[in-house]
Design goal:
Pfam families: LptD, LptD_N. The protein is built from four helices and 42 strands. The chain is mainly β. It is 3% helix and 54% strand.
Length: 765
């Protein structure tokens, strides 16, 4: 057993506490394990102060030699030899390297330097070496050492009984131990590291910045020992190649799963992770992730592949089919110069249940896109394309459009005549479906805005807008909702909108804080506009909300325009005092014209007087956050939209709750505007410094009369999750149970279990 570098100092009285029974038990168990007690070496306290009496920089080097400067309390010269002995607070300096010791003996004839007594060596990378005695070359390179501790700049610690430098410059350490954990708690008291790696021999290559372990074993909580063959870490804190800790989980679809990964650092800017997934009730699967960082940007490619049986969920087929199955996800962004960039993303799966069965993603659609952008101070250009793969049951992929090209150009400049700002826009879009309606669109828009402040403090904004549209569509009869079809062939329209918006902020004090009460009114006028002749592709999910109450067009896209004359009024209120912040708004609009509305019943906008909408946010420090969004029927005062999201607690202990109730009573044929009711709960409770329990649940409360298509019975749990976790500065350990209540194809309902174990600061990813 290697001797300790030095005995740890007596712990302060605040650090002395009685040992709990569990700790005593763990200690007795640890004594029975075949391990060497190196923890005192790793946990040695380090001085915080810099080396004192640092000498000035040495004079400029002559030739290839770099001189060494030193300072000491006393220097002795031997009369009959070439030895110089420096005594007391000795500091040697060469470039970015320094050595501090109680005594340094320098043989000028051989060039050997021997430092002894509280030796502290700092190399050019900021790593520190502490030892009792060390032999140095005239370049301050270490030779033989005893009872040493290396404190790396990135936080890791390496202790060893002995060390020696071999001919190639590497340092061989024997009976070594390494940890990346903290050895002191927040109060500065000694703390046993959660894990450490012990090794028979360690090769320290300071030139390559690598540490290689031979005969390495991982000790976790002084109880668990695992072999780590071929372990290497970086002294610079970067990643190195190696095996990762396996993940273990159990699911009703695949049985027990063990996923083992190998991480390969191809270069400092590129890496690859390959994973093998072994299942007890499914064929094996492989996955990989490649990441790269270039001078222009970054990108990554992730892929999964297997050959397994699947159950189709569309087309009326029965039974299982064995076939190749997989998923690819790639994304990245390249910045060619300050104004030009390219962004791309690809997400494709071989079938609709693959992602859910293997618990990769629960998205109901996969979107792929590519976009070229040019952005400067006054203009914006985007050329993009979009493609979506649906994962939803009962939705035909042939009805999902491909959007290409989508070109959008905008330019903003100051109005030289009336003042204000002018923005012009050119936009074109082509939508193509394999089994549905095709639509092409182009429009040009000019918008002028002028903002002024009156003497009484009112903020007045005047807006004028002109737009011309050209549409072409075909196969319109394949769109099942008449309201979205439009007329086949070429269609055109002109749009003109004028608006006046007045805000009057009133500032004052109340309840020991500051409040801002802002009444707001708006008048918007748009002449009759042909809407139903135009296909509706991007303005379907219309709904009155606090976010679009004062919008010039309450439809979300370009294909529908809200015409007529309307008057909108509302009030914003904001209150702030130390630790508190409250924001609220409420409003309503009145349509002054008599033409029929194209807005569907139930959206809150179809009648002359709209429903009442509002939003309230309450925040207390970082402990309480509550947001409430609502829409109230103007006639019956029934709550048509009720959304509550609340978070209470700290980072370690908190509870999140969410409730959504949409009671709009819209026709089931409008699938974009279905009613629903849902509750969401999640929480975490931390205890005993590093332990926590957590859980979450999603429950569908939608009744059959609200949405007969979905088929909910009024109380339908979708997912629940419960788990426990341990996490400190260098280790993660968790056990999670999850239950899925819905089955789709070969993605079965049932219980899933997952064990997650990860070591931090070990050099892998």
């Amino acid at each position: 057993m290697p001797p300790a570098l030095s005995s740890p100092p007596q712990a302060p009285s605040r650090c002395l506490r009685p040992l709990p029974l569990s700790t005593l038990t763990a200690g007795l168990i640890a004594l029975t394990l075949p391990t060497q007690t190196w923890a005192q070496d790793i946990a040695r306290p380090l001085p915080d102060e810099p080396a004192s009496a640092m000498p000035p920089a040495p004079p400029p080097a002559s030739g290839d030699e770099i001189p060494i400067a030193f300072a000491a309390d006393k220097v002795e010269y031997a009369q009959n030899s070439e030895e110089v002995t420096a005594i007391g607070n000795v500091v040697l300096r060469r470039d970015d390297q320094s050595v501090r010791a109680d005594t340094v003996n320098w043989n000028q004839e051989t060039g050997q330097i021997v430092a002894s007594g509280n030796v502290r060596l700092v190399d050019e990378n900021g790593n520190q070496l502490f030892t009792d005695r060390v032999e140095l070359t005239d370049e301050l390179k270490t030779g033989a050492m005893e009872h040493l501790l290396i404190a790396m700049r990135q936080g890791g610690r390496l202790a060893a009984a002995q060390g020696r430098r071999i001919d190639n410059g590497n340092v061989i350490l024997t009976s070594a131990a390494y940890t990346g954990c903290a050895v002191e708690d927040a109060e500065g008291c000694p703390k046993e590291p959660s894990w450490r790696v012990t090794a028979r021999e360690v090769v320290y290559d300071d030139t390559a910045g690598r540490i290689t372990f031979r005969g390495a074993r991982l000790e976790v909580f002084n109880l668990i020992q695992l072999p780590l063959p071929g372990l290497r870490i970086s002294t610079e804190g970067g990643s190195v190649s190696g095996l990762l800790v396996p993940d273990i989980r159990s699911s009703p679809s695949n049985g027990l799963e063990v996923a083992g990964s190998y991480y390969w650092q191809i270069a400092k800017n590129r890496d690859l992770t390959a994973t093998a997934h072994i299942f007890t009730e499914a064929a094996p699967m492989i996955s990989g992730q490649y990441r790269a960082l270039t001078e222009k940007g970054a990108y990554q490619i992730t892929g999964y592949a297997t050959a397994s049986s699947r159950i189709p969920i569309a087309g009326g087929a029965t039974g299982s089919e064995s076939d190749f199955r997989g998923y690819i996800f790639a994304n990245g962004k390249l910045q060619f110069d300050p104004i030009w960039s390219l962004t791309a993303s690809i997400r494709r799966a071989t079938d609709r249940t693959f992602l859910r069965r293997y618990d990769i993603s629960r998205d109901d659609r996969l979107r792929s896109m590519i976009e070229v952008e040019r952005i400067d101070r006054d203009s914006y250009l985007s050329i993009s394309g979009w493609s979506t793969q649906t994962m939803r049951r009962g939705v035909s992929q042939g009805q999902i459009p491909v959007a290409f090209p989508l070109i959008d150009y905008r330019h903003r400049f100051a109005d030289p005549l009336l003042g204000g700002t002018i923005e012009t826009q050119l936009n074109t879009l082509a939508l193509t479906r394999a089994d549905g309606q095709d639509t092409q669109r182009a429009f040009a828009r000019t918008q002028w805005s002028l903002r002024r402040l009156t003497e009484w403090g009112q903020e007045v904004t005047v807006t004028g807008l002109l737009r011309g549209d050209v549409y072409h569509s075909s196969d319109n009869e394949l769109t099942t909702v008449d309201l979205y079809r439009g007329e086949e062939g070429w269609q055109g329209r002109g749009i003109a909108t004028a608006a006046v918006d007045v805000r009057w902020p009133l500032v004052g004090t109340i309840f020991g804080g500051t409040q801002v009460l802002t009444p707001r009114v708006q008048l918007v006028a748009t002449p009759d506009t042909p809407n139903l002749e135009i296909p509706n592709e991007d303005a379907r999910a219309v709904d009155l909300e606090d976010s679009n109450l004062f919008a010039l067009n309450r439809f979300p896209g370009y294909d529908r325009v809200e015409d007529g004359v309307r008057f909108t009024y509302g009030v914003d209120w904001q209150f702030e005092r130390p630790r508190w912040r409250v924001k609220a708004n409420v409003g309503q609009s009145i349509r002054l014209s008599n033409q029929d509305s194209i807005l569907p019943d139930g959206t809150g906008l179809s009648n002359k007087v709209s429903d009442i909408v509002g939003r309230t946010e309450v925040r207390y420090r970082d402990f309480v956050s509550v947001t409430h969004r609502y829409r109230v029927d103007k006639d019956s005062f029934a709550v048509r939209r009720n959304e509550i999201d609340a978070t209470v607690g700290s980072i370690r202990t908190y509870i999140e709750a969410g409730y959504t109730r949409l009671n709009r009573d819209i026709s089931p044929n409008l699938g974009d505007l279905r009613d629903r009711e849902e509750v969401r709960l999640a929480g975490r409770a931390g205890f005993a410094d590093y332990w926590s329990v957590f859980g979450s649940a999603v429950v569908n409360l939608t009744r059959i009369q609200d949405d007969p298509i979905y088929g909910s019975d009024g109380f339908q749990p979708l997912r629940t999750r419960i788990g426990a976790a341990y996490e400190d500065d260098c280790i993660e350990l968790s056990l999670t149970w999850r239950r899925d209540y819905q089955a789709t194809g070969d993605a079965r309902r049932g219980n899933s279990f997952q064990i997650h174990f990860a070591l931090k600061n070990l050099g892998f990813r």
